[in-house]
Predict the structure of DNA damage-inducible transcript 4 protein.
Amino acid sequence: SLPDLDLLHDPEDELLCANLMDVVQATLGRAPLGAKRCSRLLMPAQLLAQVRTELLRLACSEPCGLRGALLDLCVEHGKACHDVGHITVDPAVVPTFQLTLVLRLDSRFWPKIQGLFASGPAFAPLKLSTGFRVIKKKLYSSEQLLIEEC
């Protein structure tokens, strides 16, 4: 069984994760989703809290904690998955694991975003769904991938 997150609570990782969530939101705020186009993607507060908890949980078993993470951000809509950014949590630390955070566009907004990939004026900010997936890959081990669906 996995250790209880409260038992492994690390105040440094908590602060680091709060800063990381700011970087994630900034990266999503300028996400390149189409050819030469950017869209402002908004994370609902519930999604932000869930992602933060999940990242801390996945980092607690790592030798350097969250400091040793590489984070890839992807946004999924339809069958396509678009890369929107790569974040090295602490550039001073050799990464020990890679997390791929796959966020989903809120399907209720699909008709509004179909034109996102066409030319034309900028669109209003897009809201993300509260569902997401995190894929963890250890960089120092040959263990299988760990995929968490939330």
Remarks:
- The CA atoms of residues 7 and 84 lie 34 Å apart.
- The longest strand covers residues 126-138.
- Residues 5-107+124-148 form a domain with the Ribosomal Protein L22; Chain A fold (CATH 3.90.470.40).
- Residues 11-28 form the longest helix (18 residues).
